[in-house]
Design brief:
248 residues; alpha/beta; Rossmann fold; 7-stranded mixed beta sheet; 8 helices
Length: 248
């Protein structure tokens, strides 16, 4: 039975000591199927995605750092949703790209060049004090070029730099089959819904990266309120911290 344990947790001062304590506590139960990563602790789970060689290769071939390794259950959710949506008519969208790791894993897993559709990536790629998102280590003037280089073998991946919704003037899809929203900002994420929800085809999916995380409650409240006003549909909160919506 597969176990998956990393030292990548958020809001923990001593990662190694914390994970060691969790491992010792679980060992008293002698469980199988342990997952300890990304602020998610489970046991007695199949974790069949770890037996999916194509998926595991798509992750490992992109040289993940320890934080990216910890995202594997979130990545599984995204790859599953993207694969399901690849059967629908419409393009793919990523709002909040950062280094492009997530999109690259999806593209490699699906063989995106064979799908005959576009993948729109929206991000500022840099940071300044007036921007309403927190700076991450890779943000800077160089990041946009690095992301473009990362997708040089995927000609239909369109990397769009700028703030939303202003950057939408540079190009938007007519129909959307799959969308991943990870912007760490409630106003920006609602702006994406305002522009793109009607373009999401029936059966299309949105994965919200921040929806279930306690320190991103503003996104959950704002997105629930927007859907209640406009559509009445509900987002499913997942144990990974993500939210999943399937358009009816």
């Amino acid at each position: 039975m597969a176990n998956y344990i990393t030292e990548a947790f958020y809001g923990v001062r001593d990662q190694e000591q914390f994970v060691d304590g969790i491992a010792r506590a679980l060992n008293t139960l002698q469980p199988d199927g342990i997952f300890v990563a990304d602020n998610l602790i489970t046991w007695n789970r199949n974790m069949g995605f770890l037996q999916d060689e194509k998926f595991v290769s798509a992750v490992n071939d992109n040289s993940p750092d320890i934080q990216e390794q910890s995202l594997i259950w979130r990545l599984h959710t995204l790859c599953w949703a993207a694969r399901q949506c690849s059967r629908l008519d419409g393009d793919f969208v990523e709002a909040g790209v950062y280094k492009g790791f997530t999109v690259k894993v999806i593209c490699d897993y699906l063989g995106f060049n064979s799908l005959e559709r576009d993948y729109y990536l929206y991000d500022v790629f840099c940071h300044s004090p007036e921007m309403k998102h927190h700076a991450l280590s890779a943000h800077g003037d160089h990041l946009y070029a690095q992301v473009c280089e990362r997708f040089k073998d995927y000609p239909r991946v369109k990397v769009v730099q700028g703030l939303v919704p202003e950057s939408f003037a540079k190009g938007v899809p007519e129909k959307i089959a799959f969308m991943h929203i990870d912007m760490n900002n409630a106003d920006a994420e609602v702006a994406v819904l305002e522009r793109f929800y009607e373009r999401l085809v029936p059966g299309g999916m949105i994965v919200f990266d921040d929806y279930g995380w306690l320190w991103y409650q503003a996104q959950q409240h704002a997105e629930d309120a927007w859907l209640n006003r406009h559509q009445g549909e509900r987002i499913l909160e997942l144990p990974t911290g993500q939210g999943l919506l399937v358009k009816l």
